[in-house]
Amino acid sequence: MASLLSSATEMAHHAAVSLLSSSEVKVGSTIPTSVPVKENEADKTFTFKGISGKNLFIGVPGAFTGTCSAQIPGYIRHYDKFKEKGIDNIYVVAVNDVFVLKAWKDSMTDGAGTPIHFIADDKGAFVGALGMLFDATERLGAPRSKRFVLVTEGDTITELAVEPVTSGLTVTAADKILPLL
User: Fold this and answer.
1) Which of 31, 37, 68, 151 is catalytic?
2) Where is the Redoxin domain (predicted)?
3) Residue 159 dihedral angles phi and psi, to the nearest 5°
4) Domain coverage including residue 175
């Protein structure tokens, strides 16, 4: 009975990921502007409706995971270089709750803060609408974000990098993205 239940649960997770995730965005696509996300406060949501300027979105599978914790400090360290290249805002997006994202941000900046926005997509709806959700149930317990970087002008994607292996850091590291701008 337990194995039957386990098998049914696994099938349900795979089906949920398929339903939640649309086809992967590409250069020229627009980001979802009506999907609510959170930053710093659990009871306050916002959307990217009306987003303007040149923005960088960094999708990561999970706060506090090894590769994610190795990737994001490069963006924090090179924040001024991204600004010099015309980036108005940098958003780190993860399918985690807002409390975990805030703690992760604080841990990487020793509580000093950073102008980089850490966005909690706690239901995976934003990442799913980008087509960047994958089934990470076996390792992380739930569907998570692929590792990606999007550059947008307003809500239109102008550059896109997606790691071929989600645990890798070959095309989405800060030093790989800076030359693309």
Assistant:
1) 68
2) 26-178
3) -140, 150
4) 1-180
Helices assigned H by DSSP within the chain: 2-20, 66-77, 79-84, 98-109, 125-129, 137-140, 174-177
Pairing of strands 45-46, 156-162: unpaired
Q: With 0.90 as the threshold, say if the pTM is over it.
A: no
CB-based contact 93:127 (threshold 8 Å): yes
What is the chain's pLDDT, residue by residue, as a tens digit (181 residues)? 555 555 555 555 445 545 455 689 999 999 999 999 999 999 999 999 999 999 999 999 999 999 999 999 999 999 999 999 999 999 999 999 999 999 999 999 988 889 999 999 999 999 999 999 989 677 766 789 999 999 999 999 999 999 999 899 999 999 999 999 9
Taking each helix axis from N to C end, the angle separating 98-109 and 66-77, rounded to the nearest 10 degrees, works out to 60
179 is catalytic: no
Q: Which residues contact 18 (CB under 8 A, 6 or more apart)?
A: none
Q: Shortest CA distance to 146 belongs to which of 43, 58, 65?
A: 58
Count of domains forming the chain: 1
- The CATH code of the domain that includes 74 is 3.40.30.10
